[in-house]
Amino acid sequence: MAARMARLRRWSQVGRCGLAGCSRRYSSAGYPAVPLSRPLPNLPQPLFAPAGSGHDQHETRITVLADGLRVASQDKFGQFCTVGVLVNAGSRHEVKYPSGISHFLEKLAFSSTAQFGSKDEILLTLEKHGGICDCQSSRDTTMFAVSAEVKGLETVVNLLADVVLQPRFTDEELEMTQMAARFELQDLQMRPDPEPLLTEMIHAAAYRDNTVGLPRFCPTDNVEKIDQKLLHSFLRNYYTPNRLVLAGVGVDHDKLVEYAQKYLQGVTPVWGLGPTDVDRSVAQYTGGTVKVEKDMTDVSLGPTPIPELTHIMIGLESCSFLEDDFIPFAVLNMMMGGGGSFSAGGPGKGMFTRLYLNVLNRHHWMYNATAYHHSYEDTGLLCIHASADPRQVREMVEIITREFILMAGSVGEMELERAKTQLKSMLMMNLESRPVIFEDVGRQVLATGLRKLPHDLCTLIGEVTADDIRRVTAKMLRSKPAVAALGDLGDLPTSEHIQQALSSKDGRLPRVYRLFR
């Protein structure tokens, strides 16, 4: 009862004085009633370490082993780590093989090995350390990665070495992979979002029958052709120590090197050793058109039908990620931005980018307008994807060609600074994720042997000027366009007309007069 009466007295004081009066009564004697809008008095000034000083210059440690294998690591606080093996091999290296080997290797990853009898056994081993695994193949890189507790580092490196160098590729696993590949190809044709399919088509158009223009997904005709012998032949040529990087984030570098020497160095892979025949072809940009007439009414899912759309992607050659112009092109891509016709966001989602302001906000019938930049070690491709009703394809193409021409015009100081700030923000926010740091470390070391730190990249982004944007755009517009078109293409302009529009001053298509429609 006494406690209850004490609480009532306290609440009566709150009622008379208000919360502010009560909080003043209980505030610290040293700093009475200091509003949150002012700093506390008599506190020492904070001291910040200048960017680029101290240990962060050596944030990423790299060691090259005797056989050429590179080991790279970066510290990151936490009890979990991400470790993986990156291989300089992908679909661009399949020119002497049936296309689809890298796709098969991605699906076969983390299956049975010499040490582990099945995929389930691998997963159970990782489960003891809270681990997960994944494999991704791209046009130029294959990446095997594991995230697990730091105390399981030796187990993880041992497992990765076995997965990369000692896979079994049993008949049952190959049969399951064939089924998975067929299913993925069907899904690619049926999915409502055509962006992955258009990306394949634009690469095939831009680099016809060479390097990054080769298909990333196994063509249907090749699914039955890929067997263990063919896989071993590819692995013997491309999975060699000098083309591998063992990368780790959140691990002790010396330990990682020790385990690399124990489990990866000097190990004879299951396909044996022998002379290698590596394709070193440099990407040849050709330009051109890839068209697929397709009924887009069959991609709707659920009770709400998706409108029948025609999808166009127009691309021009940019530059490789090893060139100085890569940063200006990245800023240009961010400045163009874009997205779908509906967005629940505001400025933070890119609503002030050119493709929103000049295209989506002015043409209500456009369903999509998005810029993409694909960059490789010897070439690059900047493209714009647009979607609209089939009856408005010609007008849609002209709107996109005009946007390409406008890139070479005046660049506002505010829009340039916004694009640079947004690019820096995206870079830094992405690098908050441990798997993204792992991929960044691995890919940079695989391509260059070094790693540019984030603040170095931010400095380069900050130095981009409007003149840089105009210069790289003028260089890009000299290339022949690559065009990918999907859907009802009855009104699609010819390749010659698109090229004429991109060579003109205003980006307009030549006028076409028809007696009948």
Secondary structure class reads alpha+beta
Q: Measured on Cα atoms, how large is the radius of gyration?
A: 28 Å
How large is the share of residues in beta strands?
A: 15-25%
Unreliable stretches: 11-28, 53-57
How would you describe the overall organization of this protein?
The chain is globular. With 517 residues, it is an alpha+beta fold. The relative contact order is 0.13. The chain folds into two domains: 58-263, Metalloenzyme, LuxS/M16 peptidase-like (Cytochrome Bc1 Complex, Chain A, domain 1), CATH 3.30.830; 288-503, Metalloenzyme, LuxS/M16 peptidase-like (Cytochrome Bc1 Complex, Chain A, domain 1). Helix 9 (326-336) crosses helix 12, helix 9 (326-336) crosses helix 15 and helix 12 (413-430) packs antiparallel against helix 14. Strand 4 (132-137) and strand 5 form a beta hairpin. The chain is built from 16 helices and twelve strands. Mean pLDDT is 89; it is low at 11-28 and 53-57. The longest helix has 25 residues, at 2-26.
What's the structural blueprint in terms of helices and strands?
Blueprint: H1 2-26, E1 60-64, E2 70-74, E3 80-87, H2 101-108, H3 119-127, E4 132-137, E5 142-149, H4 153-165, H5 171-190, H6 195-206, H7 228-238, E6 244-249, H8 253-263, E7 288-293, E8 310-317, H9 326-336, E9 338-340, H10 354-360, E10 368-375, E11 380-388, H11 393-407, H12 413-430, H13 434-448, H14 454-462, H15 466-476, E12 482-487, H16 495-503
Parallel strand pairs: 2-6, 7-12
Antiparallel strand pairs: 1-2, 3-5, 3-6, 4-5, 8-11, 8-12, 9-10, 10-11
Helix pairs in contact: 2-5, 4-8, 9-12, 9-15, 11-16, 12-14
